[in-house]
């Protein structure tokens, strides 16, 4: 055997920011907006011109002006400051939901898909049952029993969000089970958790990430819905959904009180949807 | 040699843009052919399939095809607009691909697929189209043309599928047939049958054939002339029957490296890619 | 005793309550040190038979002994048997994990099986198939088909198998690359004294490589050939 030289050029494996933006402008715009929202949440104390819960009854329901860019609400609190602080509970809730749902969903999906048989049947029936609950109704019931609050709201959402990941991961794993590289790993004596999490997980993870990004926009809307119904964070902590609810009382005369948090919800949800659309395009193997 | 007026190619190149500048996969090749059987031989990456795609106008974007001259049947192909190309492609050049499973539309009946070119390129009426399609299906050796006419691709075996492809290609009476590895998806025993049929039909219609193949023995047995491609260049031109006796190191190794019962217990000759790369 | 001893092996595939025989009454003995060929058209069961011997398809009936050790159906291969029966797959694009670097693909089996000096063994394995150690940092998609198949061979040899199963190891490759891979296999067999079972649809490859061969058709062994028969081209004739 002659020692053949390796003539294959090494393709750049790292996805640079520039090429990311070129390959999917939507994903880049979405990512930029999401990063912006994250930064706003992180630096809220430095960005907000006023204390978000400081009341100033003399200046209640002021229209947008140089002093209050987005005006003030019924207690004279600066709306811009409340919007800025409002990013925090929203993102916190998103983070808790993701951390609770994706690992559980993926783990159940991989185990069910790989082992099949009775294991798969039991796990998938549980998944179907969890999936059958209507998201918002269950969340309402949950919060009604356990009491309003950020963590309870997140728990309620997580309870209905994980089955989608389990199902998707299971079907991807079933397709992988027949692959030669898993057969090859098995022949090397690689089994159990090492096979599932070292070999199967890296291949089903991209799909789950795209799914997660797609879900985020919807979770933001549901979170705002809980806030609107008074089941989210307790007042006076600023929360977008609750702010919209407060604004509805004066919506015909002082529209900006409801419109600005509404626009924030819309923009954030939109940003995550853009990001997920772009991610799906990038990770879909059919798009090379 | 046949009259070299059917196809005349000069300085044909195919380039693809990439992050580090354009990559040329076919480097300005030239050849001419008449109504003869030309074998285009090479391994993957040699540019043989890309050459065929360039001839028929099927190089996918963002690939770019350039040529000083591309004459088919007296017509200059480089001067044609994409729309004219499309018409030409169906009526003057036919293409048969490797796997009929991917080339045939799974939800269209065989009859309609065979008739399709007549619809596009001729004024033939429905009854006439049907009659010609049935005649063509019979000509490609399908035992029951009427049944084949009404069946769907998944109901056909690989060999039958390739015959149907041939029928759909030849019905528009092209002047040149390009067959890209037409038999490599078929079981061994079927290969010669399908090729024999293809050659018979090409001879009857006095067409030109470009047979693209990695199988030197097949080209030697079925073609008049052979062009050997390596990394985008034609490195060897010779009568197909002389493939076994070529002096070119690439052709020579390609011929000799094939295993057989006679090579049992010996090491097969392998390509010296380093010196070939330096020579090119 | 033969290295592979199979008698009356059956595999059925249940498809909506209709049992379909994929292998019917296969009886086969393969001796230590020989290269045994299995040929036949697609769908004849040759790959299924190989996967049974490999321990990948465990749903069979009959009796089988590998390396002098009885094997029961539905039982995963473990220990020595798992290490000493290895396989090279047909499609080098599908048999290497797309997200693992070559170094990991080769190192992991050594670690899992508790072999010492994994790094040195990886370097040796790469050298055996003509690579330098630098290739360990690559991903499979950065290599050509022939290079991947050499990696797959290096991986199969890591655990020093006695029986190497080859499932159409060159049918996805160019002719000149096929020659290199076949030469590599012949050289490695001589060096390590392995037994090969080679599945191929190509009688020329079988004729070049094998001491004995069997032609399969519709799940049965239709004919067997010894070396004189193979040399006379019997495998190619119908």
Q: Could you please describe the fold and organization of this structure?
A:
The complex is a heterotrimer of chains A (about 290), B (about 280) and C (about 240). With about 290 residues, chain A is mainly α. Chain A has a single domain, classed as Orthogonal Bundle (MetI-like fold), CATH 1.10.3720.10. Chain A has helices at about 15-25, 25-40, 45, 80-115, 115-130, 135-145, 150-175, 180-185, 190-230, 240-250, 255-285. The relative contact order of chain A is 0.15. Residues about 1-15 of chain A have low confidence and may be disordered. Chain B is of the alpha/beta class. Chain B has eleven helices and eleven strands. Chain B has helices spanning about 50-55, 80-90, 100-105, 110-120, 125-140, 145-150, 160-170, 190-205, 215-220, 250-255, 275-280, and strands at about 5-15, 25-35, 35-40, 65, 70, 75, 95, 175-180, 210-215, 225-230, 235-240. In chain B, a hairpin with a 2-residue loop joins strand 5 and strand 6 (about 75). The model of chain B has no long low-confidence stretch (mean pLDDT about 85). Chain C is of the alpha/beta class and about 240 residues long. Chain C has one domain (about 35-45, about 75-230): P-loop containing nucleotide triphosphate hydrolases (Rossmann fold), CATH 3.40.50. Chain C contains eight helices and ten strands. Chain C has helices spanning about 45-55, 80-85, 100-110, 120-130, 145-155, 175-190, 205-210, 225-230; strands at about 5-15, 20-30, 35-40, 60-65, 70, 85-90, 165, 195-200, 210-215, 220-225. Chain C has a six-stranded mixed beta sheet with strand order 6-7-8-3-9-10. A four-stranded antiparallel beta sheet of chain C has the order 2-1-4-5, with helices on one face. The longest helix of chain C is centred in the last third of the chain and has 18 residues, at about 175-190. Chain C starts with a strand and ends in a 7-residue tail after the last helix.
């Amino acid at each position: 055997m002659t020692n053949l030289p390796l003539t294959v050029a090494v393709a750049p494996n790292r996805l640079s920011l520039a090429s990311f933006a070129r390959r999917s402008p939507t994903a880049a715009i979405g990512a930029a907006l999401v990063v912006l929202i994250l930064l706003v949440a992180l630096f809220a104390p430095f960005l907000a011109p006023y204390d978000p819960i400081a009341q100033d009854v003399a200046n209640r329901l002021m229209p947008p002006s140089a002093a209050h860019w987005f005006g003030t609400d019924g207690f004279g609190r600066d709306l811009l400051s409340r919007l800025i602080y409002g990013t925090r509970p929203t993102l916190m809730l998103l983070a808790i939901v993701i951390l609770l749902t994706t690992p559980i969903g993926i783990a159940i999906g991989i185990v069910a898909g790989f082992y099949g048989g009775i294991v798969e049947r039991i796990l998938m029936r549980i998944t179907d049952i969890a999936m059958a609950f209507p998201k918002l109704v269950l969340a309402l019931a949950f919060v009604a029993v356990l009491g309003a609050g950020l963590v309870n709201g997140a728990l309620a959402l997580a309870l209905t969000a994980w089955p989608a990941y389990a199902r998707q991961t299971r079907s991807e794993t079933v397709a992988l089970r027949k692959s030669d590289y898993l057969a090859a790993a098995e022949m090397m004596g690689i089994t159990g958790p090492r096979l599932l999490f070292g070999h199967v997980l890296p291949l089903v993870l991209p799909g789950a990430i795209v799914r997660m990004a797609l879900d985020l926009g919807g979770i933001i809307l549901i979170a705002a819905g809980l806030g609107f119904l008074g089941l989210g964070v307790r007042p006076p902590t600023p929360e977008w959904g609750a702010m919209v609810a407060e604004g509805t009382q004066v919506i015909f005369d002082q529209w900006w009180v409801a419109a600005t948090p509404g626009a924030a919800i819309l923009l954030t949800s939109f940003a995550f949807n853009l990001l997920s659309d772009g991610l799906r395009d990038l990770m879909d193997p059919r798009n090379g | 040699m046949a009259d070299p007026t059917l196809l005349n190619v000069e300085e044909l190149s195919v380039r693809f843009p990439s992050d580090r500048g354009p990559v040329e996969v076919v480097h300005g090749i030239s050849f001419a052919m008449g109504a003869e059987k030309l074998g285009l031989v090479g391994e993957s990456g040699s540019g043989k399939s890309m050459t065929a795609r360039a001839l028929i106008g099927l190089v996918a974007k963002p690939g770019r095809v350039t040529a000083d001259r591309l004459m088919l049947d007296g017509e200059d192909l480089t001067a044609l607009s994409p729309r004219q190309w499309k018409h030409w492609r169906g009526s003057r050049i036919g293409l048969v691909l490797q796997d009929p499973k991917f080339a045939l539309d799974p939800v269209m009946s065989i009859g309609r697929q065979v008739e399709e070119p007549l619809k596009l390129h001729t004024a033939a009426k429905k009854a006439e189209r049907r009659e010609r399609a049935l005649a063509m299906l019979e000509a490609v050796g399908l035992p029951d043309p009427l049944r084949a006419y009404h069946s769907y691709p998944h109901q056909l075996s690989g060999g039958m599928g390739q015959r149907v492809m041939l029928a759909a290609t030849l019905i528009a009476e092209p002047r040149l047939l390009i067959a890209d590895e037409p038999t490599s998806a078929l079981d061994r025993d079927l290969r010669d049958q399908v090729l024999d049929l293809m050659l018979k039909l090409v001879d009857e219609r006095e067409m030109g054939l470009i047979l693209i193949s990695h199988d030197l023995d097949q080209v030697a047995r079925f073609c008049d002339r052979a062009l050997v491609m390596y990394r985008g260049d034609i490195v060897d031109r010779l009568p197909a029957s002389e493939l076994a006796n070529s002096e070119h190191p690439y052709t020579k190794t390609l011929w000799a490296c094939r295993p057989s019962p006679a090579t049992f217990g010996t090491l097969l000759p392998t390509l010296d890619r380093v010196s070939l790369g330096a020579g090119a | 005793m033969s290295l592979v001893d199979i008698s009356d092996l059956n595999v059925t595939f249940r498809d909506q309550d209709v049992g379909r025989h994929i292998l019917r009454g296969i009886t086969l003995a393969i001796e230590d040190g020989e290269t045994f060929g299995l040929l036949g058209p697609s769908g004849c069961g040759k790959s299924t038979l190989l996967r049974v011997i490999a321990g990948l398809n465990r749903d069979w009936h009959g009796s089988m002994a590998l390396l002098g050790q009885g094997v029961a159906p539905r039982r995963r291969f473990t220990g020595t048997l798992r290490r000493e029966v290895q396989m090279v797959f047909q499609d080098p694009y599908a048999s290497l994990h797309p997200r693992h670097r070559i170094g990991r693909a080769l190192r992991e089996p050594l670690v899992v099986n508790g072999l010492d000096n994994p790094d040195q063994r990886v370097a040796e394995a790469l050298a055996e198939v003509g690579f330098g150690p630098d290739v360990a940092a690559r991903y499979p998609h950065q290599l050509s088909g022939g290079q991947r198949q050499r990696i797959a061979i290096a991986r199969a040899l890591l655990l020093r198998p006695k029986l190497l199963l080859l499932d159409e190891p060159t049918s996805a490759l160019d002719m000149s690359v096929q020659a290199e891979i076949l030469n590599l296999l012949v050289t490695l067999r001589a060096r390590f004294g392995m037994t090969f079972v080679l599945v191929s649809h190509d009688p020329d490859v079988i004729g070049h490589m094998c001491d004995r061969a069997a032609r399969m058709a519709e799940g049965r062994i239709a004919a067997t050939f010894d070396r004189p028969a193979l040399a006379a081209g019997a495998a190619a004739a119908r």
